[in-house]
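QA checklist item 7 of 12: single-chain prediction sanity check.
[x] sequence parsed
[x] length recorded as 69
[x] structure emitted
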Amino acid sequence: MERGIIRHYDSEKKFGFIRSDDGVDYFFHGGSLSPRMQRMAGFLREGFRVKFDTDFDMKGDKAINVQPE
């Protein structure tokens, strides 16, 4: 699993970006949050530490299974 911080999260549109500890930015959708993180989604802020798996699609790198660290 990768580790990083929430760089941006739009709670209304339910998407955001994570910057991994090695400096790569990953898009994530609210549906990619673990059930625990979905309950916390209204409280996500820049700098919140997370761990996540990665995937790739036509739009680029994305984070999946996003969990609190």
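[x] summary fact logged: The chain has a mean pLDDT of 92.
[ ] second reviewer sign-off
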